[in-house]
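Continuing the series of single-chain predictions for the mutant panel. This is the parent chain; the variants come on the following pages.
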Amino acid sequence: MGKPTGFIEYSRLENTSASPSVRIKDYNEFHTPLSEGDRKKQFARCMNCGVPFCEAGITLDKERFGCPLHNLIPEWNELMWLGNVDLAVRRLLKTNPFPEFTGRVCPAPCEHACTCKLVLNSPITIRENELSIIEKAFEDGLIKAEKPKGRSESSVAIIGSGPSGLSAAYWLNKRGHKVTVFEKAKKPGGLLTYGIPEMKLSWSVIERRIKLLTEEGIEFKTETEVKDIKKLRESFDAVIVCCGSRSPRKLDIEMVETDVGTDKKASKAGASKKSSSSPTGIMYALDYLTASAKDVLGEEKLSSFLSAKGKNVVIIGAGDSASDCVATAIRQGAKSVSQLIRKPASFYEKTDASGNKTLPSDYAHEEAEAIFKKDIRSFSTECSKAYFTNNSLTEIELKTQPPKKIPCELLIIASGFAGPDETAEKLMNNKLDGIFSAGDINTGASLVVTAIADGRSVAAKCDEYLTGYRSFL
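Parent structure:
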């Protein structure tokens, strides 16, 4: 423990954020780091517990506790308090190859397990501490490409360059294997690039890491879709499929085409039968976020159909993707934004330090409240019908008593994912030797940190397959 009384002397202090009215004007990251002195005090708050639950990485009663990567949290907190940035970042990178990603987008289950949270309801700022270490290391020139000391004769193909694919590539390259990553999109990064908005995780941060991985010997082949895994396997000693869990969960929404004075009801398939590219005004969250990301990155201009500009936007869902859709729609200039959440508010309530129950809100809800002067969330609420005129969405009907209609020109469904898409399932539907899978395709839609952890775990299995023995992985 760097400072035994740190958690008593210093209060939790987080990075500051730009005001919602300012930050919605662009897609820039909006958090301002603490001063070096204030951050050092946050490192000092770590108690270096005898049993550091923050490192546990377990699931209990469907709640995640501790870091899935088993980061050596007390170690690098103490080292930073002592001023040893070099050793601190080396201890951090020992378990987490991409702390600049997790330090920005991880929900910090480590803090949920922190003893200071259990006792004081004021956990250590572990996620922000992690981010400050890696960014300080980049600033000081401590992060440089490290090529493996030797090369094996084995080659590995990785399909997909999301967090699990990048993680598997990183660790297998460290072991000296020749790694080639195939990505069908224009840029590598997968979900990191096209599923997380720029204001949360900038492409410049991802690009910086991709450049390092390339310098270390990993080859990236973008705009390359793999359809024949058998043919690919013939060219590589092993293949790892990291295609994610992209198939959206369907909702039963009745489509109603409205002519002048009449309603013509469609079959009750709703969004489950409509293509995401069909000009109806209904789309899935990942399609919306991907199209928006391509526009921000200058790859493909956002069409008026996909844009929220000037529209009444309704988002169905309560997760991170739903929040990201809210924030993106606001930045695109939506006329109004509403969020429908199936579960009751009581399901999400938390108890604060005073014992009072509060309803948590994230960055997107702060922005929505600042712009629309209200909480845009409607709990215990579902959508039953969608009304169209000339094949354009005009309003939706809510499952309330009595039923209520609200204007809506863009309905975004962020109700989660059902599993891998058809292409990924075909890739996995084989009996070939030397084929592995990692990330959301294994676990279902999960956290970036979980995907990174699974990438390492699968890299270890692949390495054992290639070498015939277990390594440090």
